[in-house]
Amino acid sequence: MLSLFLFQISLNRMIKTLSATNYSIEIGPLTESSFQDLLTNKYAHSRKVIMVDENTHDNCLEFLLTAFDDLTDAEVILLPAGEENKVMEVCFQVWNALSDYGIGRNDLVINLGGGVVTDMGGFIAAVFKRGVDFVNIPTSLLGMVDASIGGKTGIDLGAFKNQLGVFKDPVAIFIDPSFLHSLPENEVWNGFAEILKHSLIADSSLWAKIKNYRNIDDLYTADLIEAGISIKLKTLLNDPFEKGERKLLNFGHTIGHAIEGCMLETDSPVSHGHAVAIGLLLESQLSNNRGILSNEEFKEIEETIKALYSPIELDEEQIAIVLELMKNDKKNSEGKIKGILIHSIGHCTFDEVFEEEEIRKIL
Ligand code: GLY
User: ∠ CA(177), CA(312), CA(358), 5° rounding?
Assistant: First the structure.
């Protein structure tokens, strides 16, 4: 897994490469990246399977097939879009299809999509025949700066997010910011919540730079994506398997995941990024209520989140469900809800006990 990261800028000026010990993350036009080399060399004799969802099938697949002749004979597997479909039933269907296609361990899965596709496509590849190689080509901002990176693959179990999964790194990650134009703008803003999160946990100067971003064009840049990824890579450096500091990347997620899980079961599900944004605000509120985070910095966070994200209304019954879901969070231990608190912008701590009553109060 990830044990030593070397940051480098590749010689190709169109592509920025962030290197890990056993895979690289290339940011820039896909056609300029080493994706073609991979297809031509390492996987020249492999069967290729492209995982898409309905959105990337319609908006991104044609580009991939047109630009890379080696994919002409690839099998395309269409996953139903949306977090509500990141479930075992869909995996069973795909594993059966992979068996029918005769896919083996030397073949290659290409995950073309947002966080749901890279999470579930990675999981499907990681456990099929004990592991088929896969590459991630994330097409959403959330996927580019967070979900596709760090080897977490998995699916949901009912309303419990990412309860089933394995750590397995992709062979490579190719991030082409031009795919962001295939998304509705609000989806790009939702992904921006993960970059806000990265800055709040580890980089106050990045926060100062991006907290006033209100123009969608600010979000399409390779520099912003690189800044968001670099923080995550540094956090993974010492803790690829989330025994300690990787837990910091879950800031906003203890409450955010529970809200997302609760709303998943309703007629008005909320996207992961939107739920995380609200989670960041509420976990900052929790920190402020405890006197850990200053009023001034809390206000700054509150103003930014409220300017960018709409409130999510929860009734009493839903608040009870959110609290129940939080009790099953993966980071809990000793029967206690544990999450992340923010002490100042750029400095958070993990394994903090959240009391049920204080959460109820802020919800
Ligand atoms: N999305 C949080 C992590 O990868 O650890």
Answer: 115
Instruction: Quote the ligand 1 centre to 357 CA distance (angstroms).
Output: 27
Ligand 1 centroid from CA 146, angstroms: 6
What's the chain's length in residues?
A: 363
Tokens of 15: 């592509």
Q: What CA–CA distance (Å, rounded) separates 33 from 151? A: 21
Indicate which atom in ligand 1 lies nearest the CA of residue 147.
1
Q: In one letter, which amino acid is 313?
A: E
Find the CATH number of the domain harbouring 287: 1.20.1090.10
Residue 99 has pLDDT above 90, yes or no: yes
Residue 162 CA to residue 257 CA, distance in Å, equals: 10
pTM for the whole structure? 0.93
Query: Whole domain around residue 176: which residue ranges?
Result: 2-183
Q: Which of 152, 183, 214 is a domain's end point?
A: 183
Q: How confident is the model at residue 309, as a pLDDT?
A: 98
Task: Report which secondary-structure segment, H or E, holds 152.
Answer: strand 152-157
Nearest residue CA, atom 5 of ligand 1? 249
Last residue within a domain, chosen from 164, 183, 202: 183
Residue with tokens 């795909």: 94
The residues lining ligand 1, judged by C-beta closer than 6 Å to any ligand atom, are: 146, 150, 152, 246, 249
Rounded Cα distance between 174 and 31, Å, is: 10
- DSSP symbols for 18-64: EEESS-EEEES-GGGSTHHHHHHTTTTTS-EEEEEEHHHHHHTHHHH
| 291 CB burial (10 A radius; 0-12, 13-18, 19+) | exposed
Please write the tens of the pLDDT for every residue from 157-208: 998 889 999 999 999 999 999 999 999 999 999 999 999 999 999 999 999 9
Name the amino acid, one letter, at 289. N
Strand 133-138, strand 172-175: pairing? parallel
